[in-house]
């Protein structure tokens, strides 16, 4: 019988204590992210626009510029999981008629957010995805570094983080 090497597992990811969803609405610019397959065509000016819907859901419109200079968009929906101030949401970009399938929904947890709602980090329980978003296309270096320190303390591999170019 072999012996397996024990790897230190990071503690369970904790979202922020509460989220004021109406205050979160609006435009967020992507500052950095873990590279992923569904954004591989995006080369610059990536942003997300969140808009509250009458039924309590959130419309999500992601935009970016591709290498050939074209703007591409993905329209999706988000829903809060739990209480009205829950920082845990789920998002889907599949067609609405597939929304009954659990696998079309992805976790979207707000894990770090400044009190002014200007800089946010979003991930999911397995830490496979990570986005740093800001209300403006540029972030003060000291503010960004402080966020990176907090993300490192939460078990994120900062070497995987890729800056997102803006014009």
UniProtKB/TrEMBL annotation:
Q: Where found?
A: Cell outer membrane
Record-linked InterPro entries: Calycin (IPR012674), Lipocalin_ApoD (IPR022271), Lipocalin_bac (IPR002446), Lipocalin_Blc-like_dom (IPR047202), Lipocln_cytosolic_FA-bd_dom (IPR000566)
Q: Which domain of life is it from?
A: Bacteria
Keyword annotations of the record: Cell outer membrane, Lipid-binding, Lipoprotein, Membrane
Residue span(s) of domain Lipocalin/cytosolic fatty-acid binding: 19-166
Cite the Pfam families for this sequence. Answer: Lipocalin_2
Cited function:
Involved in the storage or transport of lipids necessary for membrane maintenance under stressful conditions. Displays a binding preference for lysophospholipids.
Q: How does it assemble?
A: Homodimer.
What family is this? Belongs to the calycin superfamily. Lipocalin family.
Q: What is this protein called?
A: Outer membrane lipoprotein Blc
Species the sequence originates in: Rhodoferax potami
């Amino acid at each position: 019988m072999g012996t397996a090497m024990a790897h230190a597992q990071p503690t369970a990811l904790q979202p922020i204590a509460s989220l004021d969803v109406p205050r979160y609405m609006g435009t967020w610019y992507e500052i950095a992210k873990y590279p992923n397959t569904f954004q591989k065509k995006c080369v610059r000016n990536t942003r997300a626009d969140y808009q509250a819907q009458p039924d309590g859901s959130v419309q999500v419109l992601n935009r970016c510029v591709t290498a050939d200079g074209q703007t591409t968009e993905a329209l999706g929906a988000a829903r809060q999981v739990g209480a009205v101030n829950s920082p845990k949401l789920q998002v889907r970009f599949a067609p609405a008629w597939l929304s009954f399938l659990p696998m079309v929904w992805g976790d979207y947890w707000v894990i770090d957010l400044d009190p002014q709602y200007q800089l946010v980090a979003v991930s999911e329980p397995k830490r496979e995805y990570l986005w740093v978003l800001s209300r403006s296309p540029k972030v003060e270096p000291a503010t960004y570094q402080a966020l990176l320190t907090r993300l490192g303390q939460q078990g994120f591999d900062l070497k995987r983080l890729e800056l997102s170019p803006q014009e």
